[in-house]
């Protein structure tokens, strides 16, 4: 049985991370983030929405325990020429000296070499150390995994959607992740499916909603998943995510129940932003729902 409290190395970087990371989108206070850091959650993702409390936490952690922390900055830019300034601006806004990772967000194709060249410039300036990538194009992800195995990919970890509703990674990505071969660290997100798995009004008849803790446990229980990202809005949500690390993997009955609920949600509530490969299934599910 897995120990979710066991730390892991990210790719070949030598950086050691908790299995749980924290995103900056929601408005948890600096004290909430710092408390989680003291409890061992050391991966901080300065992502899509950048809250001031999150920046305050990064600054405080940098002053006292920077060697234990991992800071990531995300860029959605479709112009590699803008990224260097974007990272400089983000450093000023966060008030920190360096990011450990630059994450190229929402890549539907392999970024051209100019992005890697920008990363090298940032690395040479010691304001970014490593490169990572997220994608909603699941069939593309095995390309990065194969290149990494051959020591031909600069991306030390990959980020993709995976939860009990969106399980396409189980066929499109996870079979290509071998524990016996080098592979980029696999980080997943949207564990609660934007809160749908927690919502009693969206459950199948007779089913209680899933707890956030068990949503995180679900995703982490898959052997191919190394990390999961949470987005707490307050201390209670942060501590529930941490509780998943202590509770550990799901048993078979827990997994079967959550997947049954996930199947219902997939058919009834289409994603606003489907992954590549999802659209036909979503359309089919909605057609069946409309006909019923």
How would you describe this protein?
The chain is of the alpha/beta class and 292 residues long. The chain is 38% helix and 16% strand. The protein has ten helices and ten strands. The strands form two sheets. Strands 3-4-5-6-7-8-9-10 form an eight-stranded parallel beta barrel, surrounded by six helices. Strands 1-2 form a two-stranded antiparallel sheet. Helix 1 (30-38) runs parallel beside helix 2 and helix 7 crosses helix 8. The longest helix has 17 residues, at 252-268. The radius of gyration is 19 Å and the shape is globular.
Mean pLDDT reading: 93
- Neighbour order of strands in the largest sheet: 3-4-5-6-7-8-9-10
Query: Are there runs of 5+ residues with pLDDT below 50, and where?
Result: 282-292
Amino-to-carboxy terminus distance: 41 Å
Counting DSSP E segments of at least 2 residues, the number of strands comes to 10
Radius of gyration based on Cα positions? 19 Å
Give a quick account of the main beta sheet: strands, pairing sense, barrel closure.
Answer: 8 strands, parallel, barrel
Order of helices and strands: EEEHEHEHEHEHEHEHEHHH
Strand proportion, as a percent range, falls in: 15-25%
Helical proportion, percent range? 25-40%
The dominant shape is globular
Please state the structural category. alpha/beta
Give me the number of helical elements. 10
Concise summary:
With 292 residues, the chain is of the alpha/beta class.
